[in-house]
Design brief:
This protein is α/β, with parallel strands linked by helices. The chain contains 13 helices and 16 strands. The chain folds into four domains: 115 residues, Rossmann fold, CATH 3.40.50; 80 residues; 167 residues, P-loop containing nucleotide triphosphate hydrolases (Rossmann fold, 3-Layer(aba) Sandwich), CATH 3.40.50; 62 residues, Alpha-Beta Plaits. A seven-stranded mixed β-sheet has the order 7-8-6-9-10-12-11, with helices on both faces. It has a five-stranded mixed β-sheet with strand order 1-3-2-4-5, sandwiched between helices. The protein is elongated, with a radius of gyration of 28 Å.
């Protein structure tokens, strides 16, 4: 067992907390486990007093760790007057209860901590419902038998109980609440589906941002959309899916979705609860996988995101690796990387400084070419102002002015934007050649 001392007068104002990282022979492949557990605790505004690392070959049925280590934990809890002990391992309900009884303080596992962070971060109506649903599913397995004096009893008059224990009442109330939340979420999901179908019908390309938590997704989203989505250097700063329509250079109008960040061993209840939010990822034309290029564990985190993308059936969506935060690397210039077939698969940028964003736009235009069309249009003398807008939005391959002062433009834009152009007065389609979807 390794013990890492921290300042007693830590900055955190939350519960005085001990973190216990359990390293089993089966999870020694886990990267950055102790540091990530501490980051999670800090994101939940806890006052972390001690870090503890315990190595075991197998999990104990009663406490998960050995009884000797539990005795050491009990001494630490009393010595430092701790309020909370958090385990990196997923504890069974009985293990959690046994530990709380012995340590005489609240005990929580990593899943409970992540749920707590999600409850702090959720802002939208849908996000709050999703988090509550995940919390209730988690809680339903952790109800303890209580109020035993109210249990059903055998016997005659004067010996019968009320017919239902407090435990059964709690379970029934939780089941009712889960059912009600599921119904409300179903209505929200239907509204989201209507919006999604509307975008598909209008041929508006969808771009989804995905990646490990704290990789800089929201910062990139804000840079591209000029939005003010909350972005901070902490885990799970963004929970609520945010969607914005934007005009991208060379690509035209598109919809960009910022989604919740991923983390290793993301609790299944959360994946299930946020399935509708993550649906935006599955329905996208392009998936931008945002990676912290300065993170020493970036390779492992890329693999973890790939696993979750596969779990939500989004692995068939064309994707581009966006290596973000190159401003944190020494003398690193933005660039585009192509595979052996000449396809762009990786772009190096800084969402903080804007370096390389023009290359990202180029990569998106190339990837979205399957949703674009090449056309020749004519602008009459009263509609020449539209030419400057097209210059900002799409590629103009050729342009000229005819004998009547009308502009003839050969352009490459999305199907949706071309339809919008043709609805304007003074714009005439001369010919169109649709691209084939890649």
């Amino acid at each position: 067992m390794e013990l890492f001392d921290r300042q007693k007068d830590a900055v955190g104002q939350g519960e005085r907390t001990l973190l216990v990282y359990v390293e089993l022979s089966s999870n020694r492949h886990v990267y950055n486990g102790m540091d990530e557990l501490e980051e999670l605790a800090n994101s939940s505004a806890l006052n972390v007093i001690k870090n503890l690392k315990v190595a075991r070959n197998y999990a104990s049925a009663k406490y998960f760790i050995g009884s000797g280590k539990v005795a050491e934990l009990a001494e630490l809890v009393k010595e430092f007057e701790l309020d909370l002990v958090i385990f990196s391992a997923e504890l069974s309900p009985s293990q959690e209860r046994n530990l709380e009884k012995t340590l005489e303080c609240q005990v929580m596992d990593r899943t409970g901590l992540i749920l707590d962070i999600f409850s702090l971060r959720a802002r939208s109506f849908e996000g709050k419902l999703q988090v509550e649903l995940a919390q209730l599913k988690h809680l339903s397995t952790r109800l303890v038998r209580g109020w035993t004096h109210l249990e059903r009893q055998k016997g005659g008059i004067g010996l019968r109980g009320p017919g239902e224990t407090q435990l059964e009442t709690d379970k029934r109330l939780i089941a009712v609440r889960i059912k009600n939340i599921s119904k409300r979420l179903e209505k929200v999901h239907k509204q989201r589906d209507l919006g999604r179908k509307s975008r598909v019908k209008s041929d508006t390309p969808m771009i989804a941002l995905a990646g490990y938590t704290n990789a800089g997704k929201s910062t990139l989203f804000n840079y591209i959309t000029k939005a003010e989505v909350f972005a901070h250097n902490q885990l799970f700063a963004t929970l609520d899916a945010t969607i914005r329509r934007v005009i991208l250079p060379a690509s035209g109008e598109a919809v960009i979705a910022d989604t919740v960040g991923f983390i290793q061993d993301l609790p299944h209840d959360l994946v299930d609860a946020f399935k509708s939010t993550l649906e935006e990822t599955r329905q996208a034309n392009v998936l931008l996988h945002i990676v912290d290029a300065a993170d020493e564990y970036k390779v492992e985190k890329i693999e973890q995101v790939h696993d979750i993308v596969h779990e939500i059936d989004a692995d068939k969506v064309p994707s581009i690796l966006v290596m973000n935060k190159i401003d944190c690397l020494d003398n690193f210039e933005p660039r585009i990387d192509r595979d052996e077939n000449g396809r762009i698969f990786r772009v190096w940028v800084s969402a903080q400084t804007g370096a390389g964003i023009d290359l990202l736009y180029q990569a998106l235009a190339e990837q979205l070419s399957g949703t674009m069309t090449r056309a020749r249009i004519q602008l009459d003398v009263t509609s020449a102002y539209i030419r400057s807008e097209i210059h900002n939005i799409g590629y103009i391959h050729n342009e000229k002015v005819d004998d009547f002062g009308q502009w003839i433009l050969e352009i490459n834009v999305t199907h949706h934007y071309l339809s919008k152009l043709l609805s304007l007065k003074g714009v005439t389609l001369l010919w169109e050649q649709k691209s084939q979807q890649k």
